[in-house]
Amino acid sequence: MSAQPGEELGSEERWFGDDYERNGLFGNTSTRFDELRHDLKPRGGDAVGDLDQQFHPFQDDGKRPPVAMETASTAIDLLYWRNVKQSGAVFSSVLLLLFSLTQFSVVSVGAYLALAALSATISFRIYKSVLQAVQKTDEGHPFKAYLEMEIALSQDQISKYADKILLYTNTCMKELRRLFLVQDLIDSLKFAVLMWLLTYVGALFNGLTLLILVVVSMFTMPVVYEKHQAQIDQYVGLIRTQVNSVVGKIQAKIPGTKRKEE
Predict the structure, then answer these.
(1) How far is 26 from 179, CA to CA, in rounded Å?
(2) For 198-207, what is each residue's pLDDT tens digit?
(3) Closest Cα to residue 9, out of 187, 241, 261?
(4) Where are the transmembrane segments (predicted)?
(5) What DSSP letter does each residue of 175-240 carry, written as one string?
(6) pTM confidence score
(7) Phi–psi pair at 31, nearest 5 degrees
(8) What is the 3-state secondary structure (H, E, C) of 29-80?
(9) What is the 8-class DSSP label of residue 16?
């Protein structure tokens, strides 16, 4: 069976594609998000009119905190290797930490990291003090700029992050309830297949190994996709079309599994 990436099978016979983007991985979630719109309200008491404000509370109106924009920009630059030296340093440091955790306990790794950091800062502090004494200068504390830097989170930031965490928690709980109580048979079967596949993944890898693979993928897949986007999109489209066709045939043969048209 051959198909082109752009072919569509109709809303009732699609698993991926438009239905996938609208319904999510395990079915229609728009109604559940609508229910959650009224669960969270800003501190001022006004209801949130758009769900996007829950997930993106910082709008591009000039009021978005610089820290949030800088953090997002830095993360993207790291994953796409805009600065090779910086990305390489972060990537190697994270991998070294994860590999250390595979050999030593979390307590030991944390203690050794703290000792290494303290050794570096104390040595630098003593070096600068001796240098100032010899040169008879008064430059002050070498870490003065960092000591005076504001690192506390504001009440508004804490409130926004807490609201987002609450929204994600409520959404996850409602989705799990829907899957385990078989509100939609096809979605519950998909979830069961996913859990069955994870049993094999868990038998082959432990948590730290999976975490290492995730980190490696985060630092490699964006670059690969950026360079070969057209080819990857073509093959993904073909796979989606084939999967949509198979799932559509299964839904047509199992009574009560075909979704109603919206």
Answers:
(1) 8
(2) 999 888 888 8
(3) 241
(4) 89-118, 204-225
(5) HHHHHHTTSSHHHHHHHHHHHHHHHHHHHH--HHHHHHHHHHHHHHHHHHHHHSHHHHHHHHHHHH
(6) 0.56
(7) -65, -35
(8) CHHHHHHHHCCCCCCCCCCCCCHHHHHCCCCCCCCCCHHHHHHHHHHHHHHC
(9) S
